[in-house]
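Below sits the subject:
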Amino acid sequence: KLRIAKVGCGGMGASDLAEVAKHPSVEIVCLCDVDQRPLDDLKTKGLFGGAAQFRDWREMYAKMGDRFDAVVVSVADHMHASVAMEALNRNKHVYCQKPLAQQAYENRQLAKIAASKPKLVTQMGTQRMARSWRRQGYQMVRDNLVGAVKEMHAWTDRPAGWWPQGKPRPTGSDPVPPYLAWDLFLGLAPERPYKEGYVPFNWRGTYDWGCGAFGDMACHIVDMPFYALELTYPTSVKCECTDATDDEFPTSQTVTMQYPPTPRTAKDGMKFVWYDGGRQPDYKALGLPEDFAGRDKDGKLQKPPSDGGVILVGEKGVLYFPIEGATPTVFANGKKVDVNVAPQQTTNHWHDWINAVINGGPVLAPFQKAGLMCESLSLGAFSCMEPNKVLQYDATRQVFTNSEKATAWCHRPVRAGFKVENL
């Protein structure tokens, strides 16, 4: 049996736990959550009764570190790096939810340490990429069907009421619920009073804990194009928004990032434009016909999915890459082009990781790849700290050369008691 410790058991953590537990070669030996409710819920349902329960992941590692082989991390974004890195430090295999880490430095270090320990299998939880149509899209980019890519445009409707953004930091404080270990939730982030509603989900739009709409959804939307194009780090980032505050990401934004050339892009590099909060690209201007998203059975135009998609503008055509449920489509001169797309298999992203741990073999989103992409996306997410300004990024030093404020979010201080080796 592969003995697994699970950190974060509510929300997406419950889904991750259920998926890994389905594998016949897995035994869940530890459960940890700062919120007592999901732990109590598991007890009520009679699930994993033999697993030790903890509130503090540091105590779990200290007391049980010799009794598990792998860790699954499904906590708030700001704690991904610490919990995952401590697992790597202890030579444990790791599955970590997206985004891999919140800050640029954290992502770089996770990729570096994972690369230095090739016997450990790591996987970021971008489970959509294990589906057949996402894999087909990857291969279509690799097959150069639209030529060298000049531009990538991607969007999501988030936050779309899922969680608050664009609001100032609330004043005052509320009593901490008895089920919540508030100091452990804060973790490495600065201390602040508890306010009702922060947990279990509304932390996503707050700088201290989340990555906003960009960090939440771009990992799912641009992962396959990013990897297929072999993108690295942007040279510049500009965020256009109006309501970012000192505490939260904006309700909507357009972020433009310039990338250096790769063998898959135009010779002078590639432009990536991100839209969220209801903003979307000008599809016609990008060379797409009005029916690019298809028509229904009555012939009426279908709209592209509001929750996400990607458009790659190449030198020979345009590739429309929806987030869900359909093979990407190629267009040239405003018309759909029929192409042969090799069939791909849908697998279980969690089980792919488990099987690789047990039997060897590759995974789709190892930390070496995921860390590079998530560092890049983190820069885009936190560029709203200094909006409407072109920020120049020095990837070697991991700094914005013309913005101290934005640079501070590339590598910020860790609160006492939560520092781990290699971070």
Summary: The chain has a mean pLDDT of 97. The radius of gyration is 21 Å.
